[in-house]
Structures are given as structure tokens and as C-alpha cells.
Design a protein that fits this description.
Elements (H helix, E strand, L loop, with lengths): L11 E5 L24 H15 L3 E3 L9 E3 L14 E4 L4 E7 L3 E7 L4 E7 L1 H6 L1 H11 L8 E4 L9 E3 H10 L7 E3 L5 E4 L1 H11 L4 E4 L14 H6 L8 E7 L2
Parallel strand pairs: 2-5, 3-4, 8-12
Antiparallel strand pairs: 1-13, 4-7, 5-13, 6-7, 6-8, 9-11, 10-11
Length: 252
């Protein structure tokens, strides 16, 4: 797993996991943690157990992600059937690793070590535009976190050099704010553009006053050995794809 000093504190554990180190095979090789994939559920459960073990947490909690700006407060583990349809999770309960599953979308991990509050957000373009990053920070503040103390780190995400979008996509962002044009550059293909999702997320967090932010600058599309990628799978006409997990937890 990949860690960063910005989230490394006493009484806290975190990791941006790669696709390596698991038991799945084929398209899902090998640390596929996606409950929604077509992988053998027994293998996915083993992979998720390995994540829990690596983090030295009691349990891994993930949501039914729907590309929203909705956030849930986690005060206990839940079963697969109990997963809320949200894209942000926050907690002040030790032992519960908050995880987000991605395969190009942005995994954001948050921490206020002083208040002992952590958060995790799944930020695809829809959720980013709707404000999932900001909503997660606000939910952490309701648990006692202070914005000045919150650190936010963006893990493996598709980069602008591999994220081609249509003019209609660009128009959607410009309708929200004309200044969003700065996150797009012209693509080689006429009428298309390259979208910088990581820069957009960093700017949204900075605009709300979260200053301790970092982008790990790891492209899921580019690094096939390390990361699953929905877009790469689509371009290769593969039948399915795995999901890597990024997680953070408070320790007792």
C-alpha cells in the first residue's frame, strides 16, 4: 500500500492500495476489493481481509457508491446489504477503516489528527462537480474536526493526459462556473478535450479553505500493473474490471 506523511500520525493508519497482493486472478488480478465486480465473492472477501490486516484495523467499511455528494457518519460496521448509497464516509470511532473503491475516479482520504476524525470520499466527475469533497469536510466538522487541521490526500486517479471528454462534458462544467474552463485543454481529436480531474478536486478543496492538500499524482490508466482502470478496460474491450481500495482508520 502507498502511504503519505500528510496522513501519518500516531493513533491513525491509512493506505492507498494497489491491485497487487491479493488472491484474485484474470481481469481481477489480484487485490480486487470491489463488491460490485464479477469476481468470486469469496476471493473479494479474502482481499478485503488482507486490507484490514495491513491496516491493523478491526473492520473495513465501504459504501454503495453512486457518484453523489452524500456522506454517511459511520458508527459501526455494516453488512454488504446494509451499505448506504453515498460517496463519502466520516467517523470518530476507532478500529473502523473507511474505504473507497476506485478504478479511475479520485479516492480522497481526510484526517484531523487533533480532533481524531477521519473521512474518505469517492470522487468521480459527477461527485466532484456536485461537491463530494466539500460535503465530506463539512461532515467531519460536525464530528468536531477543524478545517484548519484537516489534511486531504488524493490517491491514484486518472490523469488529464488520459481523460478525454466530449464538448458536452465541458459544457456541463462551464454551466456551473465559467472558470472551470481552466481544467480543460484541447485534445488531439477534434471537438474533444482533456479533463484534469485531480486539479479540479484540489482546487475545490483549496477554495473552501483546506490548505493541507496533496495529490499523489499516480495515474490509474497509465500504470496497468499497479491499478485497475475502467477507461483502460473499455478501450481494451475487456468484459469487467477490478477496483482498488483506499482506506483510513483511527486506532484505539
Amino acid at each position: 500500500m502507498i502511504t503519505t506523511p500528510l496522513l501519518t500520525h500516531k493513533g491513525m493508519t491509512h493506505g492507498f492500495f494497489t491491485r497487487e497482493g491479493g488472491v484474485s486472478s484474470g481481469l481481477f488480478a489480484s487485490l480486487n476489493c470491489g463488491l460490485g465486480s464479477g469476481d468470486d465473492p469469496t476471493l473479494v472477501a479474502e482481499n478485503r481481509g488482507r486490507v484490514v490486516q495491513a491496516l491493523k484495523a478491526a473492520d473495513l467499511v465501504t459504501a454503495f457508491q453512486v457518484h453523489s455528494a452524500e456522506v454517511a457518519v459511520v458508527d459501526r460496521p455494516w453488512t454488504t446489504d446494509q451499505r448506504p448509497r453515498v460517496d463519502g464516509l466520516v467517523t470518530n470511532m476507532p478500529g473502523l477503516a473507511l474505504g473507497v473503491l476506485t478504478a479511475d475516479c479520485g479516492p480522497l482520504l481526510f484526517a484531523d489528527p487533533a480532533a481524531r476524525v477521519v473521512g474518505a470520499a469517492h470522487a468521480g466527475w459527477k461527485g466532484a462537480l456536485a461537491g463530494i469533497a466539500e460535503a465530506t469536510v463539512l461532515a467531519m466538522e460536525k464530528l468536531g474536526a477543524k478545517r484548519d487541521n484537516i489534511a486531504a490526500v488524493l490517491g491514484p486517479t486518472i490523469s488529464a493526459r488520459n481523460y478525454e471528454v466530449s464538448r458536452d462534458f465541458l459544457t456541463t462544467f462551464l454551466e456551473v462556473h465559467p472558470d472551470n474552463e481552466r481544467f480543460f485543454t484541447a485534445a488531439v481529436r477534434a471537438g474533444h478535450f482533456m479533463f484534469d480531474l485531480p486539479a479540479y478536486l484540489m482546487a475545490r478543496l483549496g477554495a473552501m479553505g483546506v490548505e493541507r492538500i496533496k495529490n499523489l499524482d499516480l495515474c490509474t490508466y497509465q500504470h496497468e500493473r499497479w491499478f485497475f482502470s475502467y477507461r483502460r478496460t473499455t478501450h481494451k474491450h475487456e468484459a469487467d474490471y477490478g477496483r482498488q481500495v483506499s482506506a483510513i482508520a483511527l486506532m484505539p
